Amino acid sequence: MQLKNYIDGKWISTEGLQYIPVVNPANGEKLATVPLSTKSEVDQAVVAAKKAQKQWALVPAPKRAEFLYEIGFKLKEKKEHLARILTKEMGKVIEEARGEVQEGIDMAFYMAGEGRRLFGETTPSELADKFAMSVRAPIGVVGLITPWNFPIAIATWKSFPAIIAGNTVVWKPSIETPLMAYEMAKIFEEVGLPNGVANVVFGTGPNVGSAMVEHPDVKVISFTGSNATGSKVAELGGKHLKKVSLEMGGKNAVIVMDDANLQLAVEGIIWSAFGTAGQRCTACSRVIVHKDVKNDLEEMLVSALSSLTIGDGLDPTVKVGPVINKAALEKINHYVQIGKREGATLLAGGKTLTTTPPFDKGFYFEPTIFTNVKNEMIIAQEEIFGPVVSIIEVASLEEAIEVNNSVKFGLSSSIFSQDVNKIFKAQRDLDTGIVYVNAGTTGAEIHLPFGGTKGTGNGHRDSGQAALDVYTEWKSIYVDYSGKLQRAQIDTEN
Ligand code: NAD
């Protein structure tokens, strides 16, 4: 199958574009080919989106919502079909793929509900016979740039709030996972979303992504990906005075205190560190453990590892799938070698699985645990984005929080403890955008804000009501029905 761009409600195949294969990371199977579009396809999509936006903004929001409800029902109807494609193109195990599609369904219904809310404020005026209110206004054409690790969920976090608020979108998915975007575009077509409201352009970041950021008619860029790319997007976007929302990397930690339910902590760590083969932005990559329970926790973690089957995520017994590609495998291995050189102790795993079937054709890395890791080591500071976790010993809650906060990222953190005083201190002092108590570092729900502090972002949030702030401008409206000129701050005596 050769994928086509979806522009202005039509499937466009442009003469002369180069195509590259989309490969199943579990076994090397070629799933499709994807075009490497150019600035010219971006221009076409932006023209269509700009034209459509004028009309779309005039459609009452509850009517716009009807399309989102239909999209939600379609996603629900196709859930298993989509989950299987997701597993094939991205590698995450099938139950997680189902969960990711469910996130899209939830987001569709949640944002459809916004069609009857999109609340602004009414507030008293300081003058008589005058009415004051604020409303959310759409901004225009929104450019979405998304990563491969959540190829459908992240796109729904961004596109649905943008669309419900009266914007139109041009979406550039990751070149690694274009199939989910292709499936979403089919759904946009099937539900009859007006032409030009949602467009998909496939291609690389430097070509298609940059062209979107630079385009004068793209007013907002919503980006999720690595810090290296995010800073380029921010720089270019800043030059063109764009509103840029960035969601980037993490170095998330689970804190295990001496009074924790250790069995629960082990389950939380295993799920957060090795689910999606450690390739979630919220993956646990550090365990900060109180010295009194370190040995017990380590023993329990190593024993729990033995029940993790590695393999093709379509097999329902498999718990850890492949990583996305060869470059990811090499990067993970590189960090493991760094960890060894830095003097950390390899407690489990540490190797690329390559030689025997099914591992010989895919990209598999053993779930890996380092212990005796010092906070200043590279493996404790940088995002590895693979199934590798570092155990760091501490002597108190205060030290645990300090270690948690000592990295440049601030996405997710978690604490396992039974002590309400420690828990409340921790949730106050952990400098991350998401905090979990007695659960791992993953598991966000779509009606709460999603994003991080410090180097993880630039103050915006995906999901929840907060997402609407990215895709709307506040407009303050004053209606004077006094029939005379009244001057604010001056004519105050009535
Ligand atoms: P990436 O930065 O390589 O790519 C992200 C997107 O940016 C892709 O669509 C890519 O094509 C595009 N891109 C690349 N260069 C570009 C350029 N010069 N201009 C414009 N766009 C460009 O990231 P990735 O490898 O796809 O994803 C993994 C990263 O994403 C990890 O760092 C992970 O933590 C992060 N992530 C963050 C969140 C979050 O919400 N904070 C969620 C998921 C993933």
Automatic annotation (TrEMBL):
<dbReference type="InterPro" id="IPR044638">
    <property type="entry name" value="ALDH7A1-like"/>
</dbReference>
<dbReference type="InterPro" id="IPR016161">
    <property type="entry name" value="Ald_DH/histidinol_DH"/>
</dbReference>
<dbReference type="Pfam" id="PF00171">
    <property type="entry name" value="Aldedh"/>
</dbReference>
<comment type="similarity">
    <text>Belongs to the aldehyde dehydrogenase family.</text>
</comment>
<comment type="function">
    <text>Part of the sulfo-TAL (or sulfo-SFT) pathway, a D-sulfoquinovose degradation pathway that produces sulfolactate (SL). Catalyzes the oxidation of 3-sulfolactaldehyde (SLA) to sulfolactate (SL).</text>
</comment>
<dbReference type="InterPro" id="IPR029510">
    <property type="entry name" value="Ald_DH_CS_GLU"/>
</dbReference>
<comment type="subunit">
    <text>Homotetramer.</text>
</comment>
<dbReference type="InterPro" id="IPR016163">
    <property type="entry name" value="Ald_DH_C"/>
</dbReference>
<feature type="domain" description="Aldehyde dehydrogenase">
    <location>
        <begin position="11"/>
        <end position="477"/>
    </location>
</feature>
<dbReference type="InterPro" id="IPR015590">
    <property type="entry name" value="Aldehyde_DH_dom"/>
</dbReference>
<feature type="active site">
    <location>
        <position position="247"/>
    </location>
</feature>
<keyword id="KW-0560">Oxidoreductase</keyword>
<keyword id="KW-0520">NAD</keyword>
<dbReference type="InterPro" id="IPR016160">
    <property type="entry name" value="Ald_DH_CS_CYS"/>
</dbReference>
<dbReference type="GO" id="GO:0004029">
    <property type="term" value="F:aldehyde dehydrogenase (NAD+) activity"/>
</dbReference>
<dbReference type="InterPro" id="IPR016162">
    <property type="entry name" value="Ald_DH_N"/>
</dbReference>
<protein>
    <recommendedName>
        <fullName>3-sulfolactaldehyde dehydrogenase</fullName>
        <ecNumber>1.2.1.3</ecNumber>
        <ecNumber>1.2.1.97</ecNumber>
    </recommendedName>
</protein>
